[in-house]
Amino acid sequence: MVTTTPTPTEIRRWRRYLADERAERAVYQDLADARSGEEREILTSLAEAERRHEQHWLDLLGENAGKPRPVALRTRFRCFLARHFGPVFVLALMQRTEARSPYGADVHATDAMAADERIHEEVVRGLAARSRIQLSGSFRAAVFGANDGLVSNLALVLGMAATGVETSVVLAAGVAGLLAGALSMGAGEYVSVRSQRELLDASTPNPEAQSAVPHLDINANELALVYRARGMETDESIDHAQEILAGLPCTHDGAPEAPVAEETEADHESLGTAWGAATSSFLFFASGAIIPVLPYLFGLGGFAAVLVAAVLVGAALLGTGAIVGVLSGASPLKRALRQLAIGFGAAGVTYLLGLLFGSGPA
User: What SS3 state is found at 1?
Assistant: First the structure.
């Protein structure tokens, strides 16, 4: 605890800490208000912890606390996301915030506060992981489908434009690339999901086999073979089979009744339908692939069209990269720049090849 008069620098720093704690408490409370059950309890506890930290800086500042700072724009944005788009984006941002806590190196923060912040990072990481799992399938298809469309069609359009062919040819190539890629993505997703469902069907126990249980020779106990085939050791499979047979209710003639077949529909539902997956992949790819074609659709040609297409796709790549960075708890800027570099790298290669084999943009 500080016993001397704080310096102006310390007062400014403590006020910043106080404002940060208030902002974090507001975000956690907004998240808690939008959730229920266990997650609500956890988020409320996090908000209460931030309130304790807030009080620590108020005690240190005393009469120097001054008026509360206006809520920062980033905090307002996080609260907006929490209310309208669910917790996944906000939790990912808060995970980064907790990881960057300065309390470990500040002598005016208690050891308990520094420990709290480290633990908060892990708590938020766990909560964010739940949301990422719920979002991962559809989000992956959306972001990476659109990204594939952006990069592949930009590369195609720039490569064709660099050869010096007519603008109409470049437009036709871009539309053809959009349709070919989207149809390929849709067909591939259809085959993937359909094949996965068929493999799941082939691995699902046949419910009709249950009807044979009452007629098994208990001494031979063929049921044990089923459990051995599923990976149990010999002794364990025999014991388990005997428990099943011994625990079955009996019919009027003393024979054991067959147990109810296991429910497996949930596994199928988690995969979705093949047609649904194919349609989503088609649309996601097409939504990205249309962007490099837009300048040509609106009548631009030559280098102007190439430049506009590159700018539009660059902005989209930065956006998708930043979203991936936010959701993964990494730096949005680094992920955005990485996405941009990869996309422009691929497009740059085809553009240079077009210049090599052609006469330049028409």
Answer: coil
Distance from C-alpha of 318 to C-alpha of 341, rounded to nearest angstrom: 10
Q: Answer whether 295's CB lies under 8 Å from 153's CB.
A: no
Residue 114 Cα distances to 53, 109, 221, angstroms: 10, 7, 61
Q: What is the pLDDT along the chain (362 residues), one digit of tens a residue?
A: 455 688 889 888 898 888 888 888 888 888 888 788 888 899 899 999 999 999 999 988 888 887 766 656 666 666 666 566 556 667 777 777 787 788 888 888 888 998 888 888 888 888 877 666 655 555 666 777 888 899 999 999 999 998 888 999 999 999 999 999 889 888 887 887 777 766 666 555 555 545 554 544 444 455 677 677 767 887 787 777 777 666 655 443 444 444 434 444 444 444 457 777 778 888 889 999 999 999 999 988 888 999 999 999 999 999 888 877 766 666 778 888 998 999 999 889 998 998 888 765 55
Amino acid identity, position 362: A
Interatomic CA distance for residues 30 and 25, integer angstroms: 9
User: Measuring CA to CA, which residue among 176, 185, 174 is closest to residue 148?
Assistant: 185
Tokens 């996301």: give the residue: 81
> What phi, psi does 256 have (nearest 5°)?
-70, 140
pTM above 0.70, yes or no: no
